[in-house]
Every structure is written in C-alpha cells, then in structure tokens.
Amino acid sequence: MTGASNLRINADRLVSRLKELGRVGALPGGGVCRLALTQEDQQGRDLVVSWMRALGLEVIVDDIGNIFGRRAGRQNIEPVMIGSHIDTVATGGLYDGCLGVLAGLEIVETLNEAGLTTDRPIVVAAFTNEEGARFAPDMMGSLVYVGGLAVEEARATQGIDGQTVGDCLERIGYGGTRLEGAPAVHAYLELHIEQGPVLEDEDLQIGVVEGVQGISWQEFTVRGRSSHAGTTPMRLRHDAGLAAAQIAAAVHAIVTEIGGAQVGTVGSFNLHPNLVNVVPETARFTVDLRNTDEQLLQQAERRLAERVIEIAARVGVSVEVRALARFEPVEFDKRLVAAVEAGANRLGMSNRRMPSGAGHDAQMLARICPAAMIFVPSVDGISHNIQELTHPADLENGANLLLATVLETARSGANQEKQ
Amino acid sequence: MTGASNLRINADRLVSRLKELGRVGALPGGGVCRLALTQEDQQGRDLVVSWMRALGLEVIVDDIGNIFGRRAGRQNIEPVMIGSHIDTVATGGLYDGCLGVLAGLEIVETLNEAGLTTDRPIVVAAFTNEEGARFAPDMMGSLVYVGGLAVEEARATQGIDGQTVGDCLERIGYGGTRLEGAPAVHAYLELHIEQGPVLEDEDLQIGVVEGVQGISWQEFTVRGRSSHAGTTPMRLRHDAGLAAAQIAAAVHAIVTEIGGAQVGTVGSFNLHPNLVNVVPETARFTVDLRNTDEQLLQQAERRLAERVIEIAARVGVSVEVRALARFEPVEFDKRLVAAVEAGANRLGMSNRRMPSGAGHDAQMLARICPAAMIFVPSVDGISHNIQELTHPADLENGANLLLATVLETARSGANQEKQ
Fold it and tell me: How much is the pLDDT for B297?
C-alpha cells in the first residue's frame, strides 16, 4: 500500500455528486424533500446505484431496502463499511446523510484511479429511512441490518401517510432480498455534517465523534371532549388541545431545568377536529428527548410522565403514551476513535472529540463491529433545514480523513504483520 | 286571526325533517359533517329548497347563497323572518342551525293546514356559512345580508382547503342573484338549541335570549427557525411550536383569571414541518375569545397581546396576528325579547332570560331590524359534537313558542288597530 498515505480525494467531484443528488426532490426555495421510500427517494437511490455500477461496485439490496456497493479486496474477508443514508426530512438540505454515502463513492473512485486494491473489501452503504420523518423508528434500515428489529415488523410499519414500509419498498423497486447469514463487518466509518454549531464556534475542522446521545421518542394522544367554544364554561371543558399545549410547555421547562446536554422538542402536534370554534377532542403530539447521559435521559422521561399525569387530571382528559423509538447513548470503539483522531492530527486538521447530538446509522453498526464517525462543520449549526451548508473545504477535509482511516482500517491483520 | 292562539305545530313532522336532513353528510359513528358549500351542504340545501317548494313558498337565493322561502301575507309589507343555517362543523349534530330553519318550515306547514294567512309575509331563511368552520368569518351569509361585509369580499374568502366561497357557491349551484334594494325585515326570530348546559342544569324549558356574547377570532402565525432536534442546544433554538404552545397555555391562564363569562379556546393548531425530529419553523393557531362584556373582552385581547410579545421575545420568534372575526356583544330588541318571554309564560313554559354564548345569525339581523332568539335545552350542554341532542318535547316547546311569537309579530300595526 505504499503511496497510499499521499492519496487525496477529488473535492470537485464529491461536490458535484452532492449537487446532482440534491436536485432529486429539490424544493423551489432551495433544499430537498426526499422522504424515505417516496418517488423522490427512489430517484435518489437509482442515481446512487447507477454511480455504484459505473464505479464497478457489486450492488446488493437487502430486504429492508439498504443498498450496498461492494469493492472487492485482496482477501475475501470481512469488509470495511463506509455508510450513511440519502433520505431527508421534509425540508432538508444537501449534506445530511448524502455526504457519508457520496464520500464513500468518492473514495472508491480515488482508489480506482490510483489502481489500489485494499486487503479488505470496501462496502459503501446507503441505509433505508435514517431520518424517521415518514416512518418511525428512525435509523430503521441499519437497525434491521444489525438484527435490532425484525424485518417483518419494520416492513409492517405505517408511515404518517398510512402507507407501510413494505408496500413502499416494493412500489419503488427496492424490496431487495434477504441476505444470507449474519452481517459480518470488520469496521464501520461514517462521515457526517455536525448538524450543530460547536465546530464552527470553536473554529475547528474536524469533530472526532466519541459516541451518540441517547434518544427517546414518544407519541402522546390526549383525549378530551369536543364542545362549543362559545357556550361551554371553562370549568366544564375537557380540552385536549389545552392539555397538549401545557405538556409541550412542560417539556421545555423540564429540559431546561435538567440543563447540560439535555434537549427536548415537540416537533409534531395535531388537533382534532382542529377548528377555530370547537374545543379540541383529541390532540396527538410527539416528544423527542436526548441526552448523552442515560440516567439523566431517564430522569427527563420520568419527570415528563409525572407532569403529564398532573396536567391530565387538572384538565380532565386522558393521555396515552406510545414509545416510537428509544435508544440508549452509544460509545464508539475507542481504538477506531483514536485512529480517526490520529489521522486528523497527521493530516494537520484541527479537531476535537465530541458526542453526536443526532442519531446516526453508525450507532446501530456499533452493535456488531467497531464503529466511529467523523464530523465536519455546519454553517451556523443549521441542519434539517433548507439552509443546511458545509463549505467545500470542510467536505474535502472530512473525505480525506475518511479515506486515510479507511486505508488504515482496510489492512488485514495478516498483512499488517507482514509489513 | 281568531283561533290562531290555539294553533300548535306537529312535533313528529318537525323531528322527521330534522332526521332526514341529518342523513345528509351523516358520519359513520353518528352526527353530521356538512361543512359550508361542500357537496353535502349542497344536498342539504337541495332538500330544504324542495321542502320550501312543496309548501308553496317562493324560493329566492341571494348572491352569497342565502336561501329565502317566502309565504305571502295579507299585505305586501316587510316580512317577519324566521331563520338560521344548515351548515355544520366537521363533527356536528342534527340540531345546531337546522332546528331554526326546519321549525320555520313547520310553522309554514301548520299555517297552511289551518288555512291561515298572516298580515305580514313570513320568510324562512337559511343563511350561508354560519359556522365559519371552513370559511372565516362565521355568520358570513347573514353578515353580508345586512350589509356588514361586501359580497365581493365574502366570495373571495379562501377556506381552510384553499378554495374560495365564490367558486364553491357556483360549483354547488347556489351562486344566486343580487337582491334589489336594501333588505327590509319587520322582525327576525331564531329558534336554536342552547349549546350549553344552563337550561338543563336549572331544569328549564326555554331560554329567552337577551343578547349574544362578543366574539374575537384571531389567527397567530409564529415564525422561528427549523433546526435539528438533537444537535441544536436549547439556548440556540427559535422554536415556533414552543412559543405557540406557551401562548395557548397563556390564553387559558388569562381567561380563567378574568373569570365570569369570559371564555377562550385554541381550537386549531398547526406546525410546519410537523416532524418528530425537527424544531418547528412555523406555528399557526387560532384563538377564540368571547364575553358578554365588551370591556372585559377587550381586556382579554390586550392581555393576550402583551403575553404574546413577552413569549415571542423570550423564545426568539416573530408573531403575526390576523383578525379573523370580531363582533361586539349584541343586545336584542327589548320589546321582542319581552314578547318571547310573555309568550313562554302564556304557554306555561318554564323559562329564564340568558345571553347566548355562541354567535348566531340573529345578531347580524339585529343590525337592521328587531331580533330575538329562543333557546331550548341541549342534553349535557353538548353541541358542535356528534352527541348533540335536544329531546323532542323541547323541540316542540321551542317551535310552538316560535309560532306564537311569529303570529303576534306578523300582525300589521294597521290590523292591530282594527282589532
């Protein structure tokens, strides 16, 4: 592998692929809407698959629709996997997820051009429904891949539009086939935008991600009684919307009281019948709680549950809770994290260790193999937003660090001993 | 008019018409969805018009789609109008509005059977879009009728589904024609269910309605910044949904502090992009405030406006307010109210004077002629709900009191002097 340490990716080519993929599902005002398993997602997948084929990768689609592009190694052993996702939230940007997948393709093209074959195979993965914006839970494809969720259950999941994952997979032609045997991966690496403001604030080029926050997604359904907004005295009401609004306000109060890394969001909120002059009968809303500390995350959940009981009793409504997703905080592989850090230092990129505030496919892969992530700065910390932006120089740094780490990790032990 | 004081309506016939109209837009679990100017509203209108024609009434439709069925009087002078509406909220019942219109038809049929002609013409009116559940403001048809809103402006109004009143009127065949000259009405009477719990609580048969609460409908649009629910620290957020939830909670706090007749409702609440893992960028919600006292109603509006400014500043969002409807409290005509009360006493019906908590077409007609209303009890005070119910005996009482009041009011002054 002599000379490999001087190998660099082609930043223009990476940016050009990001832009081309960003035109699939592009929104009129900028940004992208490519919700999982929609027609737009299908078009994005088709484009990625066409690139994989053009680069000579063997394309495999499993039965939850994950796409794998495999580049053979010198030895037919466990591969190094580079992955992320290409689905977006409804008003997403060009980088969240896509960077990890397309940086993988850029590394493959760089190796192809250099005529380099690694000891281990390299697999570029695009996992299904990482965002969870249409189907819960998020990180569905990687969760199924590592055996954390039965594929039958995942395929039966109904989305916000009432359609199921399975039906949508078949409709867009990504129903795939069941992979034989357990997935065997030597190491998993994911390059991603930070989606937060820390790197930019501290003027750093690279985030060496040590782990991922724990995530708790709950859906609350409040049932009251609809009645006339003019004639029903306040004391005789059972206002589902009022209880929901008070609970939403309580989420914020609890989260700010706990402080530190604790965050909480009521992102979805729907009333029925949702009319100006009718006291709402039903309210359905979601609560997203995250913390790097599992104990504090549990405390937030507990305090919220207490407040919900109080508010429901005072307003005179019933409340039902459904867990949509629950993931404990994840620590990435210490040796792989150290390798990323050493690579950044060797390449002269300023960096810091940090946790990830968002969930990523890497945390699922961490269940079956050493995993780590590389973050690059997000302008203004904005993500899940059409203004999402990472400067080309930062994309280039991230992809070069990913390349260096892949090259190091893709050496087989046998080979290392021989060197 | 000898013998008229012994005249009674046919309760079975009235109930049977209420049930037949209730089958138009019937919901699977009971109740009715006949939102203004939908296909269901069209079918309901067609049924009412067919009944009017069968009763020998001259049918006139004005250019906001109000339907008038006219029964000639002995003299061609200003008519007594009996009216209400047949549109419903999305999950409405069989009585709200329909009772007033169908009691009018029942009175006409009773007079027809008795071979009685009143001095004054009698007009039975079904006004367009009283509920305001699809198009704001509510009481639109009667407001236009009395000259309170230009018909062009009303027809240009966009509904919650983006369609305009004018387009919908034409589509369902109730575009009508402009009536010549100012509407001239001698008196307006409206029989309606109470839609509140007071009469049932006090075991009374009749509510003699002295006036209508003032109504303030406002729509708030909160604009923040959408960002990632996991990676955006709480202090860096601009969460439009949080501000909206806090304002909704504040509406309740302000209203209960003011107390008395003050009520307040956040009935409609929508987030964008409305996804579990995205901090909401936009929130749009309505506030319905009502009070019989204009000063207190203004105080509620003022206090809400202050809280909105506070909350917007603290959360870091902008808030825009749009008035959807604003009606001052209305006092009905003292002599006509006294006539209703005297009639109830004469017929031996237990009664009390009361305000109306809901808006009604009668308050619009009160701008151009003496107007009054008769309330009958609502079981459990429930209305704007599929469980809305008024017992047949109460429907009968209300319609008989309406008949007695119409007969008295439809005497011309000239005739009274001759008697």
Answer: 97
